[in-house]
């Protein structure tokens, strides 16, 4: 039967989906933000927004000063230079620039005056915990997962000292140095009391496992995470691959924690740009399929950097239910690619994904990252619901709310629970 879905119904559906997506609280499952107890590590305010490494990379396209001269400036001087180059001398149309404007606007600041000193004044005097509340309320973010590295001296000192956790912040154990720079990391583990040598003997492996266990417990890790270069292969005889196989995966399986992999980052393509100097290249998805298939009792989270790998990872997720895809990471976190990836994921994987994380490094960024992403997710969802509504299957309010909750953290929580169930039952294969 044709023509059962009227224009009026279609408008009502769009309004309902947009409202639901705009208002459903979200669990931001990967950020570089910190519990306020970490002090200076929690970045916020206009200067930190302006010196975000996404903007540094863009500003250097206009700057003609040597890199070192820029790095020798104070944060405020760097921010002023970036403001001038990217906002005053040219229109701020890139996604990262637009993000600053969305953030200021939603905070209630007047951007049209283009007045940096005045904007700066507004940020003075905020108490970090109050500002966290303000930003989380505006972004409708209910929980924030940090990225926690035992290899970061400043961060480790805070964990060592101990503090009372802000329950809005969850933790993730980040282990890049352990896996991608084992020879430099082994002496550090040794200095921290783990009896390791650079050779991967049984004793070393069990000590690395002890290290993971200690840290996962200490920070109450929700998952264990690494970013991997385009050259990553599995199986392979290199330290990274061997450590994943012989320590990380057995540990994660036993602890019931997902292993989160972020494939495709080429670190230090231009080291002069420091944090802004990383690039991207296509990866071998077959290496990851080998991991998913050889370890059916492990659970995996993946967000890949190369646009060219997104389709293959969607297909991999159709084959391996122990894989949960999440987020549009870094260079893919632009409206054009968020829309493409979200559409492709919905069409191939339905609602069994977590479409976005913020990757915010500066607290206030959650405001724009979620505002921009929510709009795109709503647009794609409206489109997909409309496609089924024309058959007569019009989703109800409750069904839409259920679906959006799944996308905004519910599905992720369920995936985590599945990992825990496997760990406690000992022998289930998902
Ligand atoms: O490795 C990561 O988690 C990346 O997100 C960062 O290294 C990167 O600098 C970033 O901020 C991307 O958004
Ligand atoms: Zn990140």
Number of strands: 9
Give average pLDDT, whole number: 97
Q: Describe the main β-sheet briefly.
A: 7 strands, parallel
Report the structural category: alpha/beta
CATH class of the largest domain: Alpha Beta
CATH topology of the largest domain: TIM Barrel
What gross morphology would you assign?
Answer: globular
- Give the percentage of residues in beta strands: 5-15%
What helical percentage do the residues reach? Answer: 40-55%
- Rg, rounded, reads 22 Å
Q: Please provide the ordered H/E string of secondary-structure elements.
A: HEHHHHHHHEHEHHHEHEEEHEHEHHH
Structural description of this entry:
It is globular, with a radius of gyration of 22 Å. It folds into 2 domains: 7-44 and 126-425, Metal-dependent hydrolases (TIM Barrel, Alpha-Beta Barrel); 45-125, uronate isomerase, domain 2, chain A (Orthogonal Bundle), CATH 1.10.2020. It has 18 helices and 9 strands. The strands form 2 sheets. The chain has a 7-stranded parallel beta sheet with strand order 1-2-3-4-5-8-9, sandwiched between helices. The protein has a two-stranded antiparallel sheet with strand order 6-7. The longest helix is centred in the C-terminal third of the chain and has 29 residues, at 397-425. By secondary structure, the protein is an alpha/beta fold. Helix 16 (335-349) crosses helix 17. It binds D-fructuronic acid and zinc ion. Zinc ion binds next to loops.
């Amino acid at each position: 039967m044709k023509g059962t879905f009227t224009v009026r119904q279609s408008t009502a559906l769009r309004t309902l989906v947009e409202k639901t997506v705009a208002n459903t609280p979200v669990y931001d499952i990967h950020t570089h933000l910190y519990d306020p107890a970490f002090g200076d590590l929690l970045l916020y305010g206009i200067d930190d927004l302006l010196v975000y490494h996404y903007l540094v990379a863009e500003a250097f396209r206009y700057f003609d000063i040597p890199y070192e001269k820029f790095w020798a400036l104070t944060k405020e001087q760097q921010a002023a230079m970036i403001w001038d180059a990217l906002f005053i001398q040219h229109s701020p149309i890139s996604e990262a620039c637009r993000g600053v404007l969305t953030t200021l606007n939603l905070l209630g600041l007047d951007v049209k005056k283009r007045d940096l000193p005045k904007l700066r004044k507004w940020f003075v005097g905020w108490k970090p915990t109050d500002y966290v509340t303000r930003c989380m309320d505006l972004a409708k973010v209910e929980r924030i997962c940090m990225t926690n590295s035992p290899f970061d001296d400043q961060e480790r000192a805070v964990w060592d000292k101990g503090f009372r956790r802000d329950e809005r912040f969850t933790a993730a154990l980040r282990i890049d140095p352990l896996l991608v720079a084992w020879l430099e990391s082994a002496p550090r583990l040794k200095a921290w009391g783990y009896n390791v040598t650079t050779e991967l003997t049984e004793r070393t492996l069990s000590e690395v496992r002890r290290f993971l266990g200690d840290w996962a417990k200490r920070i109450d890790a929700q998952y264990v995470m690494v970013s991997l270069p385009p050259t990553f292969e599995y199986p392979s005889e290199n330290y990274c691959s061997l450590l994943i196989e012989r320590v990380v995966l057995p540990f994660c399986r036993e602890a019931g924690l997902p292993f989160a992999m972020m494939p495709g980052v080429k670190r230090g393509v231009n080291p002069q740009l420091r944090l802004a100097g990383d690039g991207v290249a296509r990866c071998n998805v077959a290496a990851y399929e080998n991991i998913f298939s050889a370890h059916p009792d492990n659970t995996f989270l993946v967000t890949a950097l190369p646009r060219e790998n997104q389709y293959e990872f969607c297909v991999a997720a159709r084959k391996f239910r122990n894989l949960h895809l999440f987020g549009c990471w870094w260079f893919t976190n632009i409206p054009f690619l968020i829309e493409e990836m979200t559409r492709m994921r919905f069409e191939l994987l339905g609602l069994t994904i977590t479409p976005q994380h913020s990757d915010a490094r500066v607290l206030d960024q959650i405001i724009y990252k979620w505002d921009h992403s929510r709009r795109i997710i709503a647009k794609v969802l409206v489109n997909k619901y409309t496609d089924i509504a024309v058959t007569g299957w019009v989703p109800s309010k409750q069904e839409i709310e259920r679906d959006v909750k799944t996308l905004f953290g519910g599905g992720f929580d369920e995936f985590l629970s599945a990992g825990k169930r496997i760990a406690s039952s000992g022998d289930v294969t998902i």
